[in-house]
Amino acid sequence: MLDWSVKDINVKSDSIQELLDNMLDSGGFMAKNMAIASDILLDMIKDDKCLRFLSFVGSIVATGLRGVIRDILKHGIFDAVITTCGALDHDIARSYASYYAGDFSLDDSKLADEHIHRLGNVLIPIDNYGPLIEGKVKSVLEEYYSKGIKELSTYELCSILGSITDESSFLYWAHKNNIPVFVPGIMDGAVGTQLWLFAQRHRDFRLDLFKDADKLAEIVFSAERSGALMVGGGISKHHTLWWNQFRGGLDYAVYITTAVEYDGSLSGAMVREAISWGKVRRNARHVTLYGEATVLLPILFAGLLKRI
Does the reported pTM lie above 0.85? Predict the structure, then answer.
């Protein structure tokens, strides 16, 4: 019987770095940028005076790339994570249930009749998403509320959520390795809605975003240098850049995107645009890597595993 469930990627170091070395000498296009990105990330990781940020969008956690994000945090390569509420949603859901391989061309009306969500070419049964997340988040909030915890920052919330997920989860390894996970857009997703509903029943419960700012200020202002791997744009990318402007900008920056520059969007903006805002230093090592993250990030990480 065929198993169509989505599987996480487990990267093993082998000859990938040789491939990246060849790309550097290829002279052409994104292959060369891949090799440059690998070199920048290696230097950033080896720089023990560097505060390292990982930011990523939520959709990739619905795919096997979740396994790469998990392993990056398992290895303790980054010091802080900035992501979206959707990343929390998918990470919790996939700790308890399966997502499935589908196709971009499936009939969405038929999928709705069958109670299946479609995220690109990933299929998510409704029962494996909203109701599951609702139950898990409600239960853990009730547990901590009963202990007298009535106010949480998003990084504290993410640590709590990491305590109820399994070892396949990036939240689990962030919790285990004491890596703070910040979610500036926390209300934009299933977890955020459950926080709001919980607050309707417990009127003294509060979400403290200022505490997130205090924590970010603490780590950013104490950093001698800083760097970031930004996977996708939107709020997670912007929040990473925004906080690093207060220390004069990032010293290392690698950005993976499929967005275009001509519409003036943040997601389409190349890293060098951030120099004009003081969010990336003029002398920073940086590269914008155009391509789809589920293809590019496993290769980059495999090469880094070999070198570190």
Answer: yes
